[in-house]
Amino acid sequence: MAGIVSCKIAADRLRGEDGSLRPGAVSAAVVIATASSFLAFVLASYYGILSFPELARGGAGIVEAIADGRIGLVGFVAPSFMKVGVPTILSNALLAPILYAGAAGIRSRWRP
Q1: CA distance 21 to 42
Q2: 34-53 confidence digits (pLDDT tens)
């Protein structure tokens, strides 16, 4: 939900006078959406593990470390961001303008 809301807000702010989005604006909106979605997921995961440690037992080593208090929020977020967040943000930033251009072309043909 955080990704959709932040993307809508960013896209509305980045629209040109004619209501269209340039490829750079599409990439920027998607980067903001991906980053906010990632942040919401990581925070929910971290605090979910802390809130329900009995459900985390027997899970991956990092889950055990969080539940035991050996890894803090930054220790959880930083590696997650580097391994998952950055590649996802970069691929979304590259693919979004291409997909948006294709969708905009199809949409323009379907208008009554």
Answers
A1: 29
A2: 999 999 999 998 998 888 87
Is this model's pTM higher than 0.70 or not?
yes
State the virtual CA torsion across 75, 83, 98, 108 in degrees, nearest 10: -50
pLDDT at 59 over 70: no
Please give the mean pLDDT across all residues of the chain: 86
**3-state secondary structure (DSSP) of residue 87:** helix
> What CA–CA distance (Å, rounded) separates 95 from 27?
8
Residue 28 tokens read as 């920027």
| Statement: residue 24 has pLDDT above 70 | yes
The alpha carbon of 6 is separated from its chain's Cα centroid by a whole number of angstroms, namely: 10
Determine the longest span between alpha carbons in the chain, in angstroms.
Answer: 60
Instruction: Judge whether 49 and 77 are in contact, CB under 8 Å.
Output: no
- Distance (Å, rounded) from C-alpha 54 to C-alpha 59? 10
